[in-house]
Structure formats: C-alpha cells, structure tokens
Specification:
- InterPro entries: MFS, MFS_dom, MFS_Na/Anion_cotransporter, SLC17A9-like.
- This is Major facilitator superfamily (MFS) profile domain-containing protein.
- The chain is mainly α.
- The strands form two sheets. A four-stranded mixed β-sheet has the order 1-2-5-6, with no helix packed on it. The chain has a two-stranded antiparallel ribbon with strand order 3-4.
- Strand 3 and strand 4 form a beta hairpin.
- Helix 4 packs antiparallel against helix 17.
- It is globular.
C-alpha cells in the first residue's frame, strides 16, 4: 500500500531533531488529543510550532537531543472506538496533493484523534517543582481539599449570623412580657406602671432607627450590628439588677435596650446590601426576618420554663449571655463588605458584585435628594400602613382570643405562637418565589409590587372574613392566614430599600421603620380607644382601609430600580 511521508523541517531556533510524520489515515478536521508528551504540534503545512507562552516543559527540554521521533496517528469517528482503524488508500491523490498540503474538509462529523508516540534518547535536566506554572493542576491529589464548612459561601455565613442576631433580638425583647407578671407581684406594680415599663423600650428604639442607618452607611454594618448586640445583651443581663435598685433605673435600662435593638435592622440591611446579589436578596432577607419570628416563639416557649425552675431573673441572665457566643463568631467570620474579606474567593466575589464595582462608604447623607424621591415616600407610607395592622394583631391577639373566642389564658398564650410560626414559614416561601421570578426574567419592580400586594391584600381579605366567621377554629385559621400572607412583605417593601439605594440602605430602612414603629405605637393606643366606643369589627375595618391605601400607594409610586447612587 503506498504511504506518504512528509519530512517536516523544524521551526527556526528549534533544536529538536527532525520530526517524521507517517500518515496512516485520511485527514479530517479533528481536535487532536495526543498521548505523547511532546509539546511541538506539527502543522499540516509541515512546520512544527512551539507555543512558548503555554509550553513550560519546553524550557527544560530546549537543549534536549531528540534522535528519533515517530508519531502514528489514526482518526476515528466512533467515540467508543479505542483501536486503530484500517487506513484508507491514498491512490486517488496526486503527488502534489499528497505532499503535506491543507486538504479541504467536507465531512461534518465529530471525530477523535489518537496518537501513539515513541521517543528515544531524550536528554536534559529534570523539571523541578518550582518550574511548574501556577495554573497547573495536580490530578488525583485530594489531600488539600477543604472540608464542606470551609467551602460554605461566605455571603450565606453573613446571612445566617444575621438570622441568629435577630433571633436573639426578639428573645431578649419578649422575655419581659412573660417576666413582668412575677416581677409586678414582687414589686407591687399596678397596670399603669406595667404599661410604662413595656413602653420604655420604644423610647430608645425610636431614637436609633435613623441614627443606626447613618452609622451603618458610614462605618459599616459589621461594627454597628456588633455594637447593637453587645449593647442590648448587657442591658438584658443588667435588667434584674436595675429592677431591684428601683423603677427609674429599670426604665432607663429598658430604654438602653431599645437603643441597642434599634440599630439592628438598619445595620443588617446595610451589610446584606453589600453581600447579597439581587437574585438572592428576597430569600436572604426573608430568612433573616424569620429569625425575629422564631425568636418570639423561642422566648415565649422557654421563658415560663426558666421562671418556674430558677426564678424570673434567670430569663434575663440566660438570654443575655447568649450574645457573647454570637459576638465571638461575628467578629471572626463577618466583614462589612466583600472587599474587606481576605478569604473570599474570586468566583464568589464576582457572583456577589455581578460586574459592579464596590463604592466607598458614605461620608454624608444627601437628605434633600433622598426625601425628594417618590419611591422613598412610597416606602415610608407603605411601612406605616403595614405595621398598623401587624402590630394590632400581634399586640391585641391574646385579648381577642380571650374576650371574643372565649379561650382561657393558657390557650390564648399557646395560640399566640401560631402567627409567629406561620410568618416564619411563609416569609421564606415568599422569598424563594420572589427570587425565582427575578431569575426567570421578571423585572424587580414587578416582583416587589406583586409580593407587597399579597402582603397587603391577603391580610385585608382575611381580616374582613374574620368579622364574618362564627366558630373559634375558623377565626384562628383566618388570623393565621392573615399573618402568613403578611409575611410576603419581606420580599416586597422590606427588600426594596436595597433596590432603590443600596449605598443608603441603612438610612432608608431607618426612615421607613421609624414610621412603622410610630404606626405600632399609635395603632395600639387607637385600638384601645376604638374598643371603648365600638367593637372589634371597627378595629379590623380601620386596618383593612390602611392596607388598601398602602396597596394603592405602593403600586403607583414604588420601583425596583436604583434611584439613589
């Protein structure tokens, strides 16, 4: 059988010996995969090419003497074939056509090239480990693979630590609602004094909503949230001592606790705006806020057990000391932004930033610009309308169960846990739905409007039905569904601060949450006044009207686009 041999001269400067290529098959367009260790790739024109930029072995084999080199190649279109196919004859080629020419490729099939290489008498110094480039990968060595907890995404570490911070936040807040009963008996407090103690928390809480946002945007969310947890944990531990000293000292300590918890939401919003990409924003915020709901459940569940076994001071000591564990983890694992984390991988950094650049911390707050934007006012008004109904249900629910549904106090206390559990579950469901819609191409504006409309119209519907039902079971079901749909707001207005102004996310949440806290204070007081003159139906109607007002304002003026640079 005639065989064509191409004597290919080496490239200029190449000290390799002559490369003899014996063609044993027809030439197809293939992606060569070679079993040889040679780095010289012969071209069909007859000139071997040395890629010095990628061939690190050639630096060591440059002075090698290659006495003889033979490459036997085959081309197979069968992906499963591992043998040598029978070569085709070259009789139909002319002498000129067969002399190392570029043939015209016409067969559009996927092929594989196998090469057998023989090399003889290669001399030269061995390759040292220091000559291996950084991008080289050692195959089969798994000793240096990090354990799963070290490969866990850093951004979700921040989210989980924020979740536990909010868990502790509400645990430390609701323990007073349980401990106040034995405390009032021991110190002889009347109902007016009890109400004063409960309300003293909001004195400090209102004070640091906007300040917490300013501090977080200037100094970073890590510092401010860490400060808040340490502050309110110390205040919680000192509460029994302050109560034994006297009422004024207790009121001051409760206000101090409000100062610490007041910075939590703005600081958390600031740090997540830097760490969480928009495609994961809803689910991360929903998870963090569900920590508040589960914190209330945990506090309401464990406080009676601790009080019955160790006395009422044990609640404050136990819950407050948990903050020390959290702050140790926070200081070690958390950073205010991805640019400050030296252990963050390049791949995760690219995923977080999404092509954007990290901007410098805020040095001054453009109040005039912020307050001139309609979406900002949509946030403030909607937050007020939302919290009016939410605080009424959560504050007056035990009274409603007892007076209207005729449940005893024990049953009322157990049923009070149900809305918090429902909100924790549905908040995370709403977060996953919202992020899925964003990933499928739905605009952020439409996603925020859809989720917040559910958060407004759902409670409005079930509160309207609540005044129509006649059985306790249906009333409890309506109440739970009302709070469950309310939790969709975590993927609506509560996520929108980071959408419209990520650099000022802390300040924006401080503004809107101040309106929300005022709604809770005024709504709780107004409900008592309404019940003196009217009925529960009137209470629910006021809440429904505000839910509808919030729906209209939100859908007309809100946006998911950035309006503050």
């Amino acid at each position: 059988m005639p065989q064509n041999k191409c004597a290919c001269s080496p490239a200029p400067g190449d000290k390799f010996g002559r490369l003899i290529t014996r063609t044993r098959s027809t030439l197809f367009p293939v992606r060569n995969y070679s079993r040889s260790t040679a780095m010289a790739t012969p071209r069909l024109s007859g000139q071997p090419v040395l890629d010095s930029s990628r061939d690190y072995l050639s630096t060591r084999l440059y002075n090698a003497s290659l006495r003889r080199w033979r490459v036997d190649c085959m081309v197979s279109s069968d992906p499963l074939s591992t043998g040598w196919v029978k070569p085709r004859r070259w009789d139909n080629f002319t002498a000129r056509e067969s002399a190392c020419v570029h043939p015209q490729y016409r067969i559009p099939i996927r092929t594989r090239a196998d090469c057998k290489a023989e090399q003889y008498e290669i001399t030269g110094s061995p390759l040292s480990p220091s000559d291996v480039p950084a991008e080289a990968l050692a195959i089969g060595d798994t000793n240096d693979v990090s354990p799963w907890w070290q490969q866990f995404p850093k951004r979700w570490t921040i989210v989980l630590l924020s979740f536990f911070a909010f868990l502790l936040c509400n645990m430390d807040r609701v323990n007073m609602s349980i401990a106040i009963l034995p405390m009032s008996s021991e110190f002889g407090w009347n109902p007016a004094t009890v109400g004063l103690i409960q309300s003293s928390f909001f004195w400090g809480y209102l004070l640091t909503q906007i300040l917490g946002g300013i501090w977080a945007d200037r100094f970073g969310g890590k510092i401010v949230l860490g400060f808040g947890v340490v502050w309110w944990s110390i205040a919680t531990i000192l509460t029994p001592i302050a109560a034994k000293i006297g009422l004024p000292c207790l009121l001051v300590m409760r206000a101090f606790m409000g100062i610490g918890e007041g910075v939590a939401m703005p600081a958390m919003n600031n740090i997540l705006s830097k760490w969480v990409p928009v495609s994961e924003r809803s689910r991360s915020l929903s998870l963090v806020y569900s920590g508040m709901y589960l914190g209330s459940v945990t506090g309401l569940a464990f406080s009676p057990l601790l009080i019955s076994k160790f006395g009422w001071p044990s609640v404050f000591y136990a819950f407050g000391s948990l903050g020390s564990i959290w702050i140790a983890l926070w200081q070690r694992k958390a950073h205010s932004s991805p640019s400050e984390d030296p252990e963050l991988s390049k791949a995760e950094r690219r995923h977080i930033l999404g092509g954007n650049t990290i901007k410098e911390p805020v040095t001054s707050i453009p109040w005039k610009l912020i307050l001139s934007k309609a979406p900002v006012w949509a946030l403030i008004i909607s937050h007020f309308c939302h919290n009016w109904g939410t605080f009424i249900l959560l504050t007056w629910m035990p009274t409603y169960y007892n007076q209207v549904l005729k449940f005893n106090l024990t049953e009322s206390g157990l049923l009070c846990v149900l809305p918090w559990l429902t909100m924790a579950v549905f908040a995370n469901i709403g977060g996953w739905i919202a992020d899925t819609l964003v990933e499928r191409g739905v605009s952020i504006t439409n996603v925020r409007k859809i989720m917040q409309s559910i958060g407004f119209l759902g409670p409005a519907l079930f509160l309207t039905l609540l005044s129509k039902v006649r059985t306790p079971a249906m009333a409890v079901l309506c109440m739970a569904c009302s709070q469950g749909t309310d939790a969709f707001s975590q993927s609506g207005l509560y996520s929108n601060h980071q959408d419209i102004g990520p650099r000022y996310a802390g300040v924006l949440l401080g503004l809107s949450n101040t309106a929300g806290v005022l709604a809770g204070v005024f709504g709780t007081a107004a409900t008592g006044y309404i019940l003196q003159k009217g009925s529960w139906d009137s209470v629910f109607k006021v809440a429904v009207v505000l839910y509808i007002v919030g729906t209209v304002v939100w859908n007309v003026f809100s946006t998911g686009e950035k309006v503050l640079e």
